[in-house]
Design brief:
Blueprint (H helix, E strand, L loop, with lengths): L2 H13 L11 H14 L2 E6 L5 E8 L2 E11 L19 E2 L2 E3 L7 H16 L5 E9 L10 H7 L1 H4 L3 E4 L4 E5 L2 E10 L1 E10 L3 E2 L14 H9 L8 H9 L7 H11 L1 H7 L6 E8 L6 E2 L2 E10 L5 H12 L6 E8 L2 E2 L5 H13 L4 E7 L5 H7 L4 E4 L3 E5 H4 L9 E3 H19 L1
Parallel strand pairs: 3-6, 3-7, 7-18, 8-19, 9-17
Antiparallel strand pairs: 1-2, 2-6, 4-5, 5-20, 8-9, 9-16, 10-14, 10-15, 11-13, 12-14
Helix pairs in contact: 1-3, 1-14, 2-3, 3-14, 8-9, 11-14
């Protein structure tokens, strides 16, 4: 089987299913994948919290006892405004060596590569020592309540696995003349908070008649604009810095060197090194001619895996000062999650990269955002879950600006590259 051609065809079909979430409408895409894998020899099952939004669990049983390897992916996407695109976002057009469309990177491309690799193995008669599972889900883009979260809570025995590959890493980047592929080993936690200031209302035509609460937020916004909290380097980012030839015990110096050598890369690396705080929403008076007696700003705060609200509160106090009339309320909290950096799965990934991109190697990374890996790590503490979709022809600096943006596209050569990886990895780990 020509893996590149087949993966391109499968991805083209997947892109043409409009699965913008909400509402999702993932059933046609999931049913297509189910039939594709059933024909190759997989046992398939659709499991759903609601009828129109099923999840697919496809299993290839082995002939002997052994570990279980799961390829995970979601088929829902974020919205797309067609007028902003060079190609119709649901066309799956192939032009200039790229396949264009919503989901071409996040993450129907990985779903296609995983499905094609697994189907190719099964069709040629290969059977694992253990189990090969493919789990394709709905609802990732809005939190997984009907997708991976629901599956791991309601059908844990159907999706339990020893090793898992999902989204979150794999794009190549170059630093000091060496090519590296990031393997996502962890995800930061979410500790969003609201900062509220209070004053006294008055008529806006008489500025001194009230006590303008909105103005009291100006120092907060200035502080958040001018600086971020100091670094708190955890296991995976420390290994990343070592892999780049930098000293994780001196992250300030490492950041300075990265800024000098590859400033664009720093935009992606620095958030991995500690707490980040980004103001995103604000509210004050409901009428333009009324001085607000209450105003607040909402801040998206991300905390390194394994660390929690206590650290977020401490870093916020350091940033804003411990005293003052401002009210702080944490409105959404979820501790970050991680898998061990060292494992047989990591070793296998590293060997494959060395064999297929000579001179390149892998480095651990963490995801500043989140993915469905969280639910598997939470449900199955012994499961080693990584994010890895190898892309050799599009660098991380090419990919990052396109995710969730107009003109999302993927180099078709990377579709064959990734499918080859999944097929080879299954053979190595499952015999």
């Amino acid at each position: 089987m020509d893996l590149q051609a087949e993966t391109t065809d499968v991805l083209k079909r997947l892109v043409r299913f409009n699965t913008v979430n909400p509402p999702g409408n993932e059933r046609p895409a999931i049913e297509y994948l189910a039939e594709y894998l059933r024909e190759a020899g997989f046992e398939v099952e659709l499991l759903s919290a609601t009828e129109d939004r099923p999840n697919l669990v496809a299993t290839l049983e082995g002939t002997d006892h052994g570990p279980s390897l799961c390829f995970l992916g979601h088929v829902d996407t974020v919205l797309a405004e067609a007028s902003e695109w060079s190609h119709d976002p649901w066309s799956g057009d192939v032009a200039d060596g790229f396949l264009w469309g919503r989901g071409a990177l996040d993450m129907k491309s990985q779903v296609a590569a995983e499905a094609v690799a697994a189907a190719a193995l099964a069709s040629e008669g290969w059977r694992p020592r253990g189990q090969l599972k493919l789990v394709f889900v709905c609802d990732e883009e809005t939190g997984g309540a009907k997708g991976a979260h629901w599956l791991t809570e309601n059908h844990p025995d159907k999706v339990r696995c020893d090793m898992l590959l999902n989204e979150g890493g794999g794009e190549v980047f170059e630093y000091r003349g060496r090519r590296r592929y990031g393997v996502c080993c962890a995800e930061k936690g979410i500790f969003r908070f609201k900062v509220t200031a209070r004053g006294a209302a008055g008529h806006a035509s008489l500025p001194r008649t009230g006590d303008n609460a909105l103005l009291k937020l100006a120092p907060v916004l200035t502080a958040l604009a001018e600086r971020q909290p100091p670094y708190d380097v955890t296991e995976a980012p420390a290994a990343l810095l070592r892999g780049l030839g930098e000293d994780p015990s001196d992250p300030e110096a490492a950041v300075a060197r990265i800024r000098e050598v590859e400033p664009a890369l720093l935009t992606l690396v620095e958030p991995m090194l500690g707490v980040t705080m980004t103001p995103t929403m604000a509210q004050a008076s409901e009428k333009i001619n009324v001085i607000p007696s209450r105003a607040y700003v909402k801040v998206d705060c991300r905390v390194p895996p394994g660390l929690g609200q206590e650290l977020a509160e401490r870093r916020l106090q350091e940033l804003l000062g411990a005293d003052g009339p401002l009210e702080i309320e944490f409105t959404e909290t979820a501790t970050g999650n991680a898998s061990a950096v060292a494992s047989p799965l990591m070793d296998a990934i590293d060997r494959w990269i060395g064999d297929n991109d000579p001179g390149a190697d892998t480095v651990p990374v963490i995801l500043p955002g989140g993915s469905d890996s969280r639910w598997f790590r939470e449900a199955f503490p012994d499961c080693v879950a990584y994010g890895f979709f190898p892309q050799r022809h599009m660098t991380i600096l090419d990919v990052a600006p396109l995710v969730h943006n107009a003109d999302e596209r993927i180099d078709v050569r990377d579709l064959g590259f990734a499918a080859g990886f999944y097929a080879d990895l299954a053979r190595e780990l499952l015999g």
